Design the sequence.
């Protein structure tokens, strides 16, 4: 029998809510997974992508990750992984460096056999490039086989991968698909194959209310249905979240919200307050300050009534302001990079708290892969055809399926921020940096 830990979406380096302590939380959760692996003496740790939250992780996060992987290697437990969309680069991957250091194995078309199971890998692939995939894997002589992949696969939420097609066209018969990208743990059987998500190890958004953890997967004739058994194990290292849902009746206000907040243990917790109903207007800062006084690490207020009011106001408008802005952007003939930032700050589904980070990431991507994107686009008066795309998100690979753009993984429990303006400053700084990519010497 082969017994492995299936984890993923550890997002090491994510400074959620701009909190340095939250940043350390993501590394601590990853460290606990590897600690559990050593204590339980599993045959391998299988990571399904997004080890890092960003393709340019901070030196401290790299050092912590290397130390954790070294402890796993010293225990004789292999670390098998694929590259996710958050950490993926156009050149060499951090996973390649870890492989060169003897700390990890990057899975691919060739089998990596552990015990009686062959493991294969499929890195994140943008939807626009998947037609070129042939799912041709090298043969193996193990008793079982598993495909580790990063993406949103059917039949789970927000899916854009045809799971059955992958399994039926693959040259290898897989007993299981061990997946990452969807932060909600789940499993299903597709084409007689177990398909499972392990979920994230820390909550990357307010929608992730379930306890965080990872999967234990066993392969063997005695394991269960199809020779595969999947069980779930929780993590103690995950930061406590207090989800406070308040439905205000007519006449109720901030005191009612405070009363509901008081009923939770807030010490060192992230407190997410969601307000519905009628009642009086609420000033988010007053609630957040109150939670901080009660010992909360971070507090955020999401007043859904404000959103409903905005939607109602929009519904009676006789013109779409976004259309007017897009038309004016075309007339200005600004660069593709500028349109990309405009889409991120104004029109995308990226949560306010993530705008600055997302805008910086997109600028770095363009600097690395398409410097011409910063050239001004000629308008019709300049002799151009005026047929540029409305937003950079429509260009191939501009969002790379970033989780921040998907509703289930955005930081959606926020009270607003001024990150839109900060995004412009980050963009200018990124352009001024030259090539936008730090050298290896700067990291190590």
Sequence:
């Amino acid at each position: 029998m082969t017994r492995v830990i299936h984890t993923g979406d550890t997002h090491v380096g994510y400074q959620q809510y701009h909190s340095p302590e939250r940043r350390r939380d993501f590394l601590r959760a990853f460290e606990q997974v590897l600690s559990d692996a050593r204590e339980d003496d599993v045959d391998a740790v299988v990571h399904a992508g997004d080890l890092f939250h960003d393709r340019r992780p901070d030196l401290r996060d790299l050092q912590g990750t290397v130390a954790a992987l070294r402890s796993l290697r010293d225990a004789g437990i292999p670390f098998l992984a694929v590259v996710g969309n958050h950490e993926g680069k156009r050149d060499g991957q951090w996973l390649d460096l870890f492989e060169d250091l003897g700390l990890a194995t990057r899975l691919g078309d060739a089998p990596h056999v552990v015990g009686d199971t062959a493991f294969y890998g499929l890195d994140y692939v943008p939807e626009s490039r998947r037609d070129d995939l042939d799912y041709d894997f090298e043969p193996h002589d193990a008793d079982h086989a598993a495909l580790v992949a990063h993406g949103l696969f059917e039949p789970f939420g927000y899916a854009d991968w045809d799971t059955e097609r992958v399994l039926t066209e693959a040259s290898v018969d897989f007993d299981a698909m061990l997946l990452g990208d969807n932060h909600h743990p789940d499993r299903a059987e597709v084409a007689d194959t177990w398909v499972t998500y392990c979920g994230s190890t820390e909550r990357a958004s307010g929608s992730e209310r379930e306890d965080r953890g990872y999967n234990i997967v066993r392969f063997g004739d005695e394991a269960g249905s199809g020779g595969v058994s999947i069980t779930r194990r929780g993590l103690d290292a995950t930061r406590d979240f207090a989800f406070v849902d308040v439905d205000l009746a007519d006449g109720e206000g901030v005191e009612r919200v405070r009363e509901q907040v008081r009923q939770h243990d807030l010490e060192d917790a992230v407190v997410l307050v969601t307000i519905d109903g009628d009642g009086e207007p609420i000033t988010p800062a007053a609630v957040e300050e109150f939670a901080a006084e009660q010992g909360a690490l971070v507090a955020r207020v999401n007043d859904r009534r404000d959103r409903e009011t905005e939607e109602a106001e929009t519904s009676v408008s006789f013109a779409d302001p976004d259309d007017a802005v897009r038309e004016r952007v075309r007339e200005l003939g600004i660069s593709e990079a500028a349109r990309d930032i405009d889409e991120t700050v104004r029109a995308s589904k990226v949560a306010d708290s993530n705008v600055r980070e997302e805008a910086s990431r997109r600028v770095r991507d363009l600097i690395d892969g398409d410097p011409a994107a910063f050239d001004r686009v000629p308008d019709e008066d300049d002799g151009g055809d005026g047929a540029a795309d409305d937003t950079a998100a429509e260009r191939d690979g501009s969002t790379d399926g970033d989780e921040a753009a998907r509703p289930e993984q955005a930081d959606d429990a926020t009270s607003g921020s001024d990150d839109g303006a900060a995004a412009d400053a980050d963009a200018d700084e990124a352009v001024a940096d030259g090539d936008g990519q730090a050298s290896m010497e700067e990291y190590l």
About this structure: Residues 379-444 have pLDDT under 50 and may be disordered. The CA atoms of residues 41 and 206 lie 33 Å apart. The two ends are 39 Å apart (CA to CA). The first helix runs from residue 20 to 40.
